[in-house]
Recover the amino acids of this structure.
């Protein structure tokens, strides 16, 4: 009997759901403004430059950024499945672990990417295009690290499996998907276009 | 409407949980108040040093001068002067006004005035305060670094703020301090917005909220949206300084691949103009309420006051370009920004007229909070009107970066916010500490401050119009400014008067905390929810969550018998 109880997650109260949605939306607006400002800076440099990339710089190879994109897309996909199961009341550690592993793989691909840039002779101080690539990926990666911390924290939420669990899962999910969207926008605008 | 009822927690018992790491919004509010008052003192001393240098160049700063600047026998050195005006601005805006108006009154008033037992996220609230403390430490540490604190102005424009302009680690610490403070304020903002949306007492619609809560709410919205913009700018500036990126380095962007210093100005003012309203909106809210409370009349057009504050909030996001008229902006853009800026006059005039309408034929009670509120009406009117000359491109090109600008923004941002903050402090002191502040001292404090600050800022406008630039160490090396020395001396004497008047406040505040007459539950005879509970407010605020039945400004209702106000928990008395 006890085992059955621990396998189901209690449905959240409406009040808790609304409060955390309101707070999470406001938080994401804040984070969104941070990245929007960065994108504005990028747009300004991009639009005012007669040639892009400027100063004879070469574009970085697209392979690693594309790999990152696939990783973060898949991790969001597994998170959606995980969240669906949680709201239905099931403890689903497999999909959470899949999300976490893919998130770590994303970070790994970023490290490889930074190393790759260095091996190509593109350093942080090699002009504004390099500045943009490094600074934006750093800031995004710092948020990914925070997101990975939240994913690890969710294991303890799953263990307690109380009425706040599904609220926590959906809040962390909003943040994780948000970071995926930010990466996608950065990938398309900075690397592809 | 309340989505749920918060539980009553046990009262904290240990010293640490009661006074230091407290989850209670009222304790956090008091912590913010002390924090803000301490920095108000530091920032004020810096202002006095700036004023002393401008009035008596080359003379030692009295009393503590030789202690602070031993190498120059007490004279403020030129590099220190740049640091002083930078940190005076930074400290007053981010470490004095923000904690007092938003941190202290936001935390104290929001739950009490909407009938909640605490903020919706008490832990986040505590974290917000301790991050602010961390930020203050970063800023104070920067003063003791080898090349001193930041000296690029509070706007920290590149190239003044890149490694070329300020090589020391002080500017980097300044960036980090403001970034941490931004995170702290954003946390507070998320908390305020969520609290006001979800925890209003049953029956309280948005227009039944006191205007104080409206002001704080709009402030929180602006904070949540625009502090991250500054955060992004500061991050990029820090990267420029520490890792060698080239976002803000001057140079031809296309050919050499370096950055653009003007980009920082854009980012800064996209944040910076809403920040002006972030600072003033809580004061507007407080004053709108207090004018009604002490005129014993319903707030004239309370709904339109709330709506005009909302439209100012929206408009404030669209006008930032008026800070950059002299930055070689296209005339088409300057004209557009001028139009938008002028448009702000309309909602401003609406609520200003509402203030006057509230006062008209009221039975005014000239107690200290009311005096300070009337002071805000006066100084904000002056500050707002002088803004028109700065919004107009043709006059701004002449007045840009003169003391006229300094006078203008001190009237709007410093004088009105300071007076509004004092009004709030005198008003909510009984609910915070359970004792009354001394009325006579409060009135002396008001009149001396009012005299002092008008002397300072009116004087600044005159010397600015005469052509004196801001941020100059010794303006009198220029011949055409030499006959402004007497006026500058007058301003400095006014500043000394204003500064010493604050000693009255500090004495009154601390003395009344322990020795003031014990306050009754409702000493001002006001009907908002915080006055339905004992003074000082118990840790759970409301033993029973109140049900709101009427608006916050029900005064002088002719159908009322025996008293001239009614509580928000009472049914509106009809004929």
């Amino acid at each position: 009997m006890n085992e059955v109880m621990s396998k189901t997650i209690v449905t959240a109260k409406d009040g808790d759901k609304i409060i955390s949605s309101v707070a999470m939306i406001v938080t994401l607006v804040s984070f969104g403004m941070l990245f929007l400002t960065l994108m504005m800076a990028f747009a300004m440099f991009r639009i005012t430059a007669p040639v892009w990339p400027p100063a004879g710089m070469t574009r970085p190879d697209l392979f690693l950024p594309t790999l990152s994109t696939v990783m973060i897309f898949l991790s969001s996909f597994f998170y959606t499945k995980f969240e669906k199961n949680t709201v239905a009341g099931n403890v689903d550690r497999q999909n959470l672990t899949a999300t976490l592993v893919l998130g770590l793989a994303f970070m790994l691909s970023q490290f490889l990417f930074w190393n790759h840039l260095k091996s190509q002779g593109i350093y942080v101080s090699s002009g504004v295009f390099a500045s943009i690539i490094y600074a934006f990926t750093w800031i995004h990666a710092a948020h990914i690290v925070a997101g990975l911390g939240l994913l690890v924290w969710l294991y303890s939420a799953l263990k307690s499996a109380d009425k706040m669990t599904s609220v926590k899962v959906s809040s962390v999910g909003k943040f994780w998907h948000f970071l995926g969207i930010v990466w996608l926008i950065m990938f398309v605008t900075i690397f592809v276009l | 409407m309340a989505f749920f009822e918060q539980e009553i927690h046990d009262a904290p018992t240990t010293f640490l949980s009661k006074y230091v790491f407290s989850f209670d919004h009222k304790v956090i509010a008091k912590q913010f108040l002390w924090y803000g008052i301490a920095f108000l003192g530091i920032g004020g001393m810096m202002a006095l040093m700036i004023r002393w240098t401008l009035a008596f160049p080359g003379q030692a700063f009295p009393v503590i001068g030789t202690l602070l600047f031993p190498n120059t026998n007490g004279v403020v050195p030129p590099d220190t002067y740049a640091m002083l005006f930078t940190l005076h601005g930074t400290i007053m805006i981010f470490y004095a006004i923000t904690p007092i108006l938003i941190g202290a009154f936001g935390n104290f008033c929001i739950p009490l005035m909407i009938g909640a037992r605490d903020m919706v996220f008490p832990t986040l609230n505590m974290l917000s305060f301790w991050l602010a403390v961390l930020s203050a430490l970063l800023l104070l540490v920067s003063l003791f670094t080898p090349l001193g604190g930041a000296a690029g102005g509070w706007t920290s424009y590149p190239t003044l703020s890149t490694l070329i302009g300020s090589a020391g680690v002080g500017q980097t610490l300044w960036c980090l301090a403001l970034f941490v403070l931004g995170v702290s304020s954003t946390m507070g903002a998320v908390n305020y917005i969520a609290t006001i949306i979800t925890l209003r007492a049953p029956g309280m619609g948005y227009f039944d909220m006191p205007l104080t809560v409206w002001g704080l709410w709009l402030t929180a919205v602006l904070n949540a949206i625009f502090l991250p913009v500054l955060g992004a700018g500061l991050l990029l500036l820090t990267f420029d300084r520490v890792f060698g990126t080239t976002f803000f380095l001057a140079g031809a962007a296309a050919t050499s691949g370096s950055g653009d210093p003007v980009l920082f100005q854009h980012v800064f003012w996209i944040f910076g103009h809403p920040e002006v309203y972030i600072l003033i909106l809580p004061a507007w809210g407080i004053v709108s309420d207090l004018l009604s409370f002490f005129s014993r009349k319903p707030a004239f057009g309370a709904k339109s006051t709330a709506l005009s504050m909302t439209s100012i909030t929206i408009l404030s996001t669209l006008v930032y370009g008026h800070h950059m008229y002299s930055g070689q902006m296209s005339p088409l853009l300057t004209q557009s920004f001028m139009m938008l800026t002028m448009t702000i006059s309309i909602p401003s005039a609406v609520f200003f007229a509402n203030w006057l309408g509230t006062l008209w034929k009221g039975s005014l009670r000239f107690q200290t909070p009311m005096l300070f509120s009337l002071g805000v009406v006066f100084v904000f009117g002056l500050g707002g009107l002088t803004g028109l000359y700065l919004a107009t491109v043709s006059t701004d090109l002449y007045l840009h970066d003169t003391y006229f600008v300094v006078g203008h923004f001190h009237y709007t941002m410093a004088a009105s916010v300071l007076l509004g903050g004092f009004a709030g402090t005198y008003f909510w002191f009984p609910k915070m500490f359970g004792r009354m502040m001394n009325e006579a001292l409060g009135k002396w404090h008001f009149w001396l401050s009012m005299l002092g600050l008008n002397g300072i800022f009116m004087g600044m406008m005159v010397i600015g119009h005469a052509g004196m630039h801001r941020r100059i160490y010794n303006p009198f090396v220029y011949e055409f400014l030499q006959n402004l020395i007497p006026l500058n001396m007058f301003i400095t004497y006014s500043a000394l008067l204003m500064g010493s008047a604050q000693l009255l406040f500090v004495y009154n505040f601390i003395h009344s905390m322990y020795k003031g007459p014990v306050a009754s539950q409702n000493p001002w005879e006001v009907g908002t929810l915080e006055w339905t509970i004992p003074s000082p407010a118990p840790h759970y605020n409301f033993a029973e969550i109140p049900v709101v039945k009427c608006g916050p400004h029900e005064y002088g209702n002719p159908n009322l018998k025996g008293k001239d106000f009614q509580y928000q928990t009472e049914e509106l008395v009809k004929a």
User: Anything to note?
Assistant: Chain A touches chain B through 46 residues (CB under 8 Å).
